């Protein structure tokens, strides 16, 4: 898009919709090589587009005339529940792609809360697919007051209508459709919205490589796919959500609630904007007004569903491998890491544990003693987690999962209403329909079979290949060529060059309970996460369900954690991982992470050390590597290397375990309030422009700053310290001056962790499991701010009980350090918290030694007070 002056606040040009070959010669010759010609029906058109050459931008300008789009007809009406409704009528909009074009639309504006407004555009009196309420239930219990943060204006036109949302406090336009080009046909919807600034974050799931978006005409295609998160392509999840940071530090979040495939095109300054091109559904926007970035994200997460509360042990350090040769191989991994004293919480197994790769089975030959191995783990207070790939193998004598599913009628059907058959690890397989309520009991039955009948006492589930991934295109019989499998407009997704949406997934005309697969494809992993959560809850009614998923949608974090899939054992992936995790924190996933040391390829010694020094501070910390066909990559668990490796990695993992009380408190605040656990610095320092593009450092909560080494042979890290007091975690030394970059000397054995002044960090003396660590005494690390004040809190419960979260049988303790340190309970229902003992209090930032120290009126002698470092 390009903007030029006109009748409305501004008139706009927009980059062209791709035209069929016969129309391309209308493009000036110097621009023709910039276009990808899509395979579309012969009756597609691209006209009413005035080409204009430009020497200032690499993109040709396709200027829509003023009389293009829709105008308001009739009066704006207000309904009883704070809704505004108005009809729109099409004017001179070309029939851009095959299918029905809607001449009349209905615009609805809902003032949902003081900080949230909904803008919905749909055909008048024509039913359209919408994301089902069962998938995403954003409450419509409207509560607004005269203090709402926004005003909404509707501009009737001609030349065209617009809906404009302004921030009341300063009249900033945060969302506006005053752009020619609104198009609404059966299988092609296009709308452009203006942004108040070019500081854009979000959209997913891709390997964006940077946290702040490149706005220079970058297109991101959104559609759940099973590719590798290496190139900037559409991969596992769908998150059509962004945050826009304004130049004064205020921010908004915007969600397009739509599960159809789409392209999102970003337009640069001087008129930043976003163009959506969607192939189905409706245009359903939710705008969250902030005004701070932190508040905007909280409002968004509270609306879509706050993150599930993980069990305490989930925050430990985990080991996994795709390519364990047999059960002896796993035993060796367990033994060498125990003997080395590596903190080690969970042992995961990939698909090789299964009998013939069938879900909810195990191989009783190569893995004959698996129940004993699990018992050994549990005796050492460790956990066991298995992978499930959600396919049911057909024609498998003695394995009834497929036949049982047919009897229950829970599989996805093809266009002929027969079970769609694809291919996966076990071979020829069917796909469960997790949008069907009946599937949940079937899923639970087989989960229970593995746990009880087969005696595989797993502690959590890992659900994979749920985009859904298919090893053939569509089905073993292919797909019928029609407007669902071969739509007239195909976003630039992986496989689009073949003219269909079916690349390595199932046919789009397949039928599911929530609708045609064309519409609900990107909800597959989300629906599986919901039913897996519910089934685990049936399996263990008193324990918090925990599953980790690859595919995801808006709100999946309410039901499952997320890992970023099949990354590479390359240095570049360390940096990319930070941006990915920070994005998914914004999307509502509190416990998420990336495979430490990488999944694809042989890990390199120095890289694997540096990755542990980074990954020890991921919310979810798992070392996982893979294989390539029959080639096994080297073992990369810490004890698989040498003693030097162990001596370097063990201290940073112990540091993680020492910080788990703080991390667990962050998880609770995410679950209760929608806070982020791992986040970019801009969320704490939104008016500091230096933070807007930082993605080589990150924060855990508001108080811990991590500045990792991300390059080979690097011994200095250029780290930015925003305006505050900052202290080296290990030494207590203050970093001065603040609000500038510092070169931190970081040899291979060292990692950079800093504590922000003004915060009290509860810590616990670490051990090799969370079970034994939780039995140790607590300490407090107090980092004083410029006023010699600090605050903190600690969440305590039994670590896994469901009832504790539901009935509030927990304790939240508040610490306040001024002249004295005070502890007071905010909630105090966890009995064991009443016996809490604090052994040591460390104070960073004192400018002189205290003359005396008293506890509850009793003065301590000098034997209890120790000075370290300089005062």
TrEMBL record:
It comes from the Eukaryota. InterPro entries: Gal_mutarotase_sf_dom, GH, Glyco_hydro_31_C, Glyco_hydro_31_TIM, Glyco_hydro_b. Residues 674-761 form the Glycosyl hydrolase family 31 C-terminal domain. Residues 307-666 form the Glycoside hydrolase family 31 TIM barrel domain. Keywords: Glycoprotein, Glycosidase, Hydrolase. GO terms for molecular function: alpha-1,4-glucosidase activity; carbohydrate binding. GO terms for biological process: carbohydrate metabolic process. PANTHER family: ALPHA-GLUCOSIDASE (PTHR22762), P-TYPE DOMAIN-CONTAINING PROTEIN (PTHR22762:SF133). Belongs to the glycosyl hydrolase 31 family. This is Uncharacterized protein.
């Amino acid at each position: 898009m390009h903007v030029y002056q006109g009748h409305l606040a501004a008139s706009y040009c927009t980059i062209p919709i791709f035209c069929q070959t016969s129309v391309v010669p209308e493009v000036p010759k110097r621009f023709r090589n910039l276009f990808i010609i899509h395979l579309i029906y012969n009756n597609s058109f691209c006209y009413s587009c005035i080409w204009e050459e430009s020497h200032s931008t690499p993109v040709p300008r396709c200027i829509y005339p003023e009389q293009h789009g829709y105008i308001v007809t009739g009066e704006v009406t207000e309904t009883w529940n704070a809704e505004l409704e108005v009809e729109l009528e099409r004017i001179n909009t070309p029939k851009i792609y095959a299918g029905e074009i809607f001449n009349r639309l209905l615009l609805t504006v809902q003032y949902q809360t003081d900080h949230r407004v909904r803008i919905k555009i749909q055909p008048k009196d024509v039913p359209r697919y919408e994301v089902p309420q069962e998938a995403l239930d954003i409450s419509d219990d409207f509560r607004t007051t005269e203090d709402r943060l926004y005003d909404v204006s509707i501009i009737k036109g001609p030349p065209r209508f617009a809906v404009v949302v302004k921030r009341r406090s300063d009249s900033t336009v945060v969302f506006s459709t005053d752009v020619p080009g609104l198009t609404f046909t059966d299988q092609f919807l296009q709308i452009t919205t203006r942004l108040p600034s070019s500081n854009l974050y979000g959209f997913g799931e891709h390997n964006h490589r940077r946290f702040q978006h490149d706005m220079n005409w970058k297109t991101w295609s959104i559609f759940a796919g099973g590719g590798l998160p290496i190139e900037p392509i559409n991969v596992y999840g769908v998150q059509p959500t962004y945050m826009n940071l304004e130049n004064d530090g205020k921010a908004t979040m915007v969600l397009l609630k739509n599960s159809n495939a789409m392209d999102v095109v970003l337009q640069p300054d001087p008129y930043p904007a976003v163009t959506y091109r969607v192939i189905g559904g409706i245009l359903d926007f939710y705008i969250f007004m902030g005004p701070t970035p932190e508040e905007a994200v909280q409002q968004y997460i509270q609306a879509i569903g706050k993150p599930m509360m993980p069990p305490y042990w989930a925050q430990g350090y985990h080991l996994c491998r795709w390519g364990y040769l047999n059960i002896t191989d796993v035993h060796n991994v367990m033994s060498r890491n125990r003997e080395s004293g590596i903190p080690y919480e969970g042992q995961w197994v990939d698909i090789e544990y299964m009998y013939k790769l069938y879900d909810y089975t195990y191989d009783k030959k190569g893995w004959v003693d698996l129940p004993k191995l699990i018992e050994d783990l549990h005796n050492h207070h460790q956990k066991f987690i298995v992978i499930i790939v959600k396919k049911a193998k057909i024609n498998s004598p003695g394995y009834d999962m497929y036949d049982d599913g047919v009897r229950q009628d829970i599989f996805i059907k093809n266009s002929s209403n027969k079970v769609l058959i694809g291919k996966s690890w076990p071979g020829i397989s069917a796909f469960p329909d997790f949008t069907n309520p009946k599937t949940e009991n079937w899923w639970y039955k087989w989960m229970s079979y593995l746990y009880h009948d087969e005696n595989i006492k797993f502690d959590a589930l890992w659900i994979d290949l749920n985009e859904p991934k298919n090893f053939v295109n569509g089905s073993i019989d292919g797909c019928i060529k029609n407007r669902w499998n071969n739509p007239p407009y195909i976003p630039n997704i992986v496989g689009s060059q073949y003219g269909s949406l079916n690349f390595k997934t199932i046919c789009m005309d397949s039928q599911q309970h929530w609708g045609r697969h064309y519409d609900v494809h990107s909800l597959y992993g989300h629906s599986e996460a919901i039913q897996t959560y519910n089934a685990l809850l049936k399996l263990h009614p008193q324990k918090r369900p925990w599953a980790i998923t690859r595919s995801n949608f808006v709100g999946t974090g309410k039901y499952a954690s997320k890992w970023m899939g099949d990354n590479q054992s390359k240095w570049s992936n360390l940096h990319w991982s930070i941006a990915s995790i920070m994005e998914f924190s914004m999307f509502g996933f509190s416990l998420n992470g990336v495979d430490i040391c990488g999944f694809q390829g042989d890990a390199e010694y120095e890289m694997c050390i540096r990755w542990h020094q980074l990954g020890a501070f991921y919310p979810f910390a798992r070392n996982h590597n893979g294989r390539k066909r029959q080639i096994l990559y080297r073992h990369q668990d810490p004890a698989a290397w040498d003693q030097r490796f162990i001596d370097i990695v063990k201290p940073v993992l112990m540091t993680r375990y020492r910080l788990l009380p703080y991390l667990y408190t962050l998880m609770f605040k995410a679950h209760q309030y929608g806070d982020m656990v791992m986040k970019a610095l801009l969320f704490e320092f939104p008016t500091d422009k230096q933070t807007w593009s930082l993605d080589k450092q990150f924060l855990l909560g508001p108080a811990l700053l991590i500045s990792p080494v991300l390059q080979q042979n690097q011994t200095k890290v250029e780290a930015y310290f925003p305006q505050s007091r900052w202290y080296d975690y290990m030494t207590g030394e203050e970093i001065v001056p603040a609000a500038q970059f510092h070169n931190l000397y970081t040899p291979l054995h060292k990692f950079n962790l800093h504590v922000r002044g003004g915060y009290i960090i509860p810590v616990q003396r670490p051990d090799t499991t969370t079970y034994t660590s939780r039995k140790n005494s607590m300490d407090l690390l107090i980092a004083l701010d410029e006023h010699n004040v600090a605050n903190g809190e600690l969440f305590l419960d039994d670590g896994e009980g469901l009832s504790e979260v539901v009935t509030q049988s927990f304790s939240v303790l508040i610490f306040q350090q001024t002249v004295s340190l005070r502890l007071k309970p905010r909630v105090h229902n966890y009995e064991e918290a009443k016996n809490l003992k604090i052994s040591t209090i460390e104070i960073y930032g004192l400018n002189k030694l205290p003359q005396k120290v008293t506890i509850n009126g009793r003065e301590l002698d000098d034997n209890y007070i120790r000075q370290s470092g300089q005062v």
